[in-house]
Amino acid sequence: MVLSRFEVHDLENSPIIIILNLAAAAALLIWAVRLVRTSFERAFSSQMRQWLKLTTGNRLTAAMTGVGISIMLQSSTAVALLLASFMPASAMSVSMGLAIILGADLGSAIVVQILSSRISLLTPLLLLSGVFFFMRTNRRVLRQIGRILIGLSLIFVSLGMISEASAPLANNAAIKNIFIYLSDDLLTGFVLAAFLAWMMHSSIAAVLLFAT
What is the distance between the alpha carbons of residues 106 and 157, in angstroms, rounded to a whole number? Predict the structure, then answer.
């Protein structure tokens, strides 16, 4: 049985297909963000720990350290987990820890701004460079850098998929009403965002999903 052009269009815009495409795109986004974070941890974990130890004498420096590590790890949560290894041994004060966490939140916001730009030329360049580094060298650090570049390119791909999948919802009255309600009900919006961030294990992935 051959489907007509109109039947194919209706099938593509069915709620089930839209939800399936959105779920697949969100899954790719979560996995890509995790790929970048774990690659940074494998390649530079010891350097980041030393960096944290050396910058705990000044709150401003500690905050800037949180910004830098959060940008590298693509996650303020990962920075908090990194800090957890220092706190039991009293390696840093609570005020320094809070400064780093606040800096990590700022770093996450910067990452979202950068990734939301989705420069079209950047995706193929990142993917080609990442595959080249990963396939053409046996050096551990360079292979992890290749994984980081591949992960960044997949983030851009997933954001494009989310944008395309959600396009049919742009003029949906029910979806508009939901977002209008959330704009007036800050508590519900806060709880929903917290739940999504917990479910995705990444605040950056959750914010990018909402922004897209």
Answer: 24
pLDDT above 80 for 188:
yes
* pLDDT tier, 130 (very low <50, low <70, confident <90, very high otherwise): very high
Max CA-CA distance within the chain?
72
CA distances from 95 to 43, 54, 92, 101 (A): 29, 16, 8, 10
pLDDT number for residue 8: 47
Residues in the chain: 212
Coil, helix or strand for 74? coil
Place of tokens 């990963």: 134
Higher pLDDT, 136 or 12: 136
- By the 8 A CB rule, do 100 and 66 touch? yes
Instruction: In whole angstroms, give the CA distance from residue 46 to residue 112.
Output: 26
Q: Is 182 exposed, middle or buried (0-12, 13-18, 19+ CB in 10 A)?
A: middle
Quick one: DSSP state of residue 167?
G
d(CA 210, CA 160): 13
Asked if residue 78 has pLDDT above 60, the reply is yes
Three-class HEC string of 108-139: HHHHHHHHHHCCCCHHHHHHHHHHHHHHHCCC
Distance between CA atoms of residues 120 and 14, nearest Å: 28
